[in-house]
Amino acid sequence: MLLKLSKDPLKLFDDIWSGAQMPSVPAFKVDISEDETAFYIDAELPGLGKENISLNIEDDVLSINAERKQEAEETKKNYHRIERSSGNFSRSFNLGEAIDQENINADFNNGILHVILPKAVPVRKKKEISIN
Fold first, then answer.
1. With 0-12 CB in 10 A as exposed, 13-18 as middle and 19+ as buried, what is 113?
2. Helix/strand/coil percent split, the chain, to 5
3. CA geometry: angle at 114 spanning 102 and 35, to 5°?
4. CA atoms of 95 and 85, how far apart (whole Å)
5. Is the residue at 8 inside a domain?
6. pTM above the 0.90 mark?
7. Which carries the bigger pLDDT value, residue 79 or residue 129?
């Protein structure tokens, strides 16, 4: 279920999945913060290269997608536990009208994806109406 949450700034970056549809553990962890000019998303993606990460926006939803490829297992080793997962991971966030989507920037270093979401300049909808 996709929700448009642009009117409530406290819910601006909620994941788009809610209730029973939300997985118990997110695919990867994010920190979200803001200052006067922008919102910031820092996503933990350890062990991945920049080429395994993509960001896209569709219908005011920012999606962060990542892929961790499975390493070839050594057949000579007897594994007692394998906890590192592989496959595709994704998180999606509703941007709404508060973000200047044309000027979003991203940087990736030391396993952290830094996304800068500049705040949009509010459009004042004021009009003078003449009286006949």
1. buried
2. 10, 35, 50
3. 75
4. 29
5. no
6. no
7. 129
